[in-house]
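Re: that backbone. C-alpha cells:
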C-alpha cells in the first residue's frame, strides 16, 4: 500500500470512528456532516468524496460498528475461557454497550436492522448464528447447556427472539433492559444454574 492509499485508509477510519462516537452519543439524525468533519479532523468535502452522502456514511458506520463489535465478540467466543465466563462477559459487554449508547442511535440502528438490510441479515446468518451455535455446543460439552435440547429448538428460540427484537414496539423499550434480557436469553426465568 502506497502513502496515498495509507492516508486515505487512515482518513476513512477516522471519519467512521468520529461519526460512530457522535452517533452513539447524540443519535444519527442529530449529528451533521460538519460535526463529523470536525471530530475526524477532515473537511466536509472529504467526507462527501469518500462516502457520497450522509445516508451512505451512516450505512458504512453501521457496518463498521457491527464488524468492530463482532471482532471483540469473536475474540471472546474463541478464547479458552469456560462457558460461564464467556456468558458473563457477553452479558457485561451488552450492558456496557447499552450504557454507552444514546437511545436515538439504538432505535435508528434497530430500525435499519428491522428493514431486513441485506448486510445485517447476511452477517447474522453467516457469522453470528454459526458462532452462537458453536457456543451452545461448547456449553453442552461442558455440562452447562442441557444436551437434550436440540440445536433446532435453540435455532427456533433464537429466531423468535431476533424477530421480536426487530419490532419497533419492542426495540424502543429494550435498551434499558439489555442486561436483564440477555440474562433471560441465556439463563431463562430460573436464573443461573449452579
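Recovered sequence:
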Amino acid at each position: 500500500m502506497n502513502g496515498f492509499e495509507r492516508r486515505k485508509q487512515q482518513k476513512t477510519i477516522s471519519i467512521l470512528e468520529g461519526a460512530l462516537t457522535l452517533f452513539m452519543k447524540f443519535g444519527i439524525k442529530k449529528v451533521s456532516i460538519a460535526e463529523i468533519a470536525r471530530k475526524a479532523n477532515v473537511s466536509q468535502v472529504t467526507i462527501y468524496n469518500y462516502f457520497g452522502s450522509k445516508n451512505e456514511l451512516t450505512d458504512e458506520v453501521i457496518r463498521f460498528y457491527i464488524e468492530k463489535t463482532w471482532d471483540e465478540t469473536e475474540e471472546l467466543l474463541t478464547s479458552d475461557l469456560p462457558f460461564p465466563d464467556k456468558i458473563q462477559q457477553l452479558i457485561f459487554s451488552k450492558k456496557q454497550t447499552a450504557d454507552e449508547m444514546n437511545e436515538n442511535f439504538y432505535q435508528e440502528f434497530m430500525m435499519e436492522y428491522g428493514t431486513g438490510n441485506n448486510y445485517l441479515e447476511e452477517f447474522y446468518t453467516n457469522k453470528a448464528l454459526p458462532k452462537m451455535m458453536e457456543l451452545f455446543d461448547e456449553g453442552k460439552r461442558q455440562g452447562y447447556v442441557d444436551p437434550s435440547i436440540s440445536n433446532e429448538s435453540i435455532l427456533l428460540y433464537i429466531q423468535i427472539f431476533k424477530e421480536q427484537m426487530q419490532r419497533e414496539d419492542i426495540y424502543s423499550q429494550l435498551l434499558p433492559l439489555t442486561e436483564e434480557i440477555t440474562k433471560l436469553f441465556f439463563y431463562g426465568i430460573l436464573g443461573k444454574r449452579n
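The mean pLDDT is 83. Residues 79-194 form one domain.
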